[in-house]
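re: the backbone from monday

yeah here it is again, tokenized this time
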């Protein structure tokens, strides 16, 4: 397998604008994978997702200092991103890692995650936690393949009023 390489960088404010536009475009397609994975799968209201992916939300999260966005580019175009949220001095959560559908399964998610982990480690992070839906086979396989260990399973009341069973993983970067 020959994996393609992407360029990964921490997002500037302008990058977040571009990212927001791309995410909103992806989820607007009701037949698309992004809509299925982000909206219909957990019964998340469309408005909730558009707010989460709006430029204002992304920029505010980045400016708060708790969230750090990493973008992956190919030929100058954004093809995926990761959002890390610091929870404690040495603990951070991988809030999202998405590789856009037409670029999936080429090793880019693995590359992006590796670069995120190195950068987080350099900032003193010793534990990275991530949650996934119990049924999210592909995300779970991706985390397991990348060294995350299952630590917990819990059912929560989602903010949009449904029950959701989540599994939690941890990674301790070396
Ligand atoms: C999950 C995701 C981040 C993986 O990124 P990617 O660039 O496609 O992943 P890679 O090519 O680096 O794959 C690494 C491994 O992950 C697992 N994996 C990735 N996509 C998978 C899929 N569709 N089905 C099963 N396993 C999968 C495989 O074990 C794969 O190794 P292999 O290709 O040698 O079998 C990406 O497909 C994605 O964004 N999906 C939608 C959003 C999502 O579920 N994000 C995670 C929760 S926020």
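seq for it, each position gets an aa:
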């Amino acid at each position: 397998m020959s994996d393609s390489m992407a360029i990964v960088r921490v997002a500037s404010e302008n990058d977040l604008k571009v990212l927001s536009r791309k995410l909103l475009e992806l989820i607007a397609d009701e037949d698309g994978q992004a809509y299925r994975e982000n909206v219909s799968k957990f019964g998340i209201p469309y408005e909730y997702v558009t707010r989460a992916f709006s430029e204002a939300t992304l920029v505010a999260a980045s400016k708060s200092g708790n969230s750090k966005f990493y973008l992956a580019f190919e030929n100058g175009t954004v093809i995926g991103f990761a959002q890390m949220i610091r929870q404690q001095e040495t603990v951070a959560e991988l809030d999202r890692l998405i590789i856009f559908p037409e670029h999936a399964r080429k090793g880019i998610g693995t590359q992006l995650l590796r670069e995120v982990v190195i950068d987080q480690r350099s900032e003193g992070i010793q534990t990275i936690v991530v949650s996934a839906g119990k049924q999210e086979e592909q995300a779970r396989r991706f985390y397991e393949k990348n060294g995350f260990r299952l630590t917990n399973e819990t059912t929560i009341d989602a903010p949009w009023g449904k029950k959701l069973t989540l599994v939690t993983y941890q990674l301790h970067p070396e």
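The beta strands are 7-10, 67-74, 77-88, 91-99, 127-133, 149-157, 163-171. The chain has a mean pLDDT of 93.
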